[in-house]
Amino acid sequence: MNEIKLPLIVYLAGGISDLTHDEAFKWRKEVTKKLNPLGIKCYNPIAAGDFDKFNDGEGHFKGGDKICYHRDKFMVQKSDIVLINYDTFSKTKSVGTCVEKGWSDCNKLVIVVSQSNIEHPFITENAIIVKTLDQAVEIIKGLQ
Description:
Rossmann fold; five-stranded parallel β-sheet; 6 helices
């Protein structure tokens, strides 16, 4: 009997607030481009047009309303893997990303964090730590 193989779903977490569209979107687009051809679906929290709806007029995302919170929570809960790009925290810490990491921990998802020199146990204890997004992509490919 053939086993039904469902595609993996990866939620792409990382900074959005105070970043330009390119800073927030480019890495997510690149990861999606590498994983989609393998049948791995990526959830991108800014692909829904929120950036255009909730920007400060100078090209920086400034939040939104409750829909962002509930939609992102739904996407995290439906994902198999959460890929957190902590390299996007150069300007400001992302509260949303920390909450998304908590949601993923409660749902026992595999978490891949791309960043070097992270030592806090709330970040490292339930995560596979890698230095580059390419390494994270290779780990995710291996889980397919």
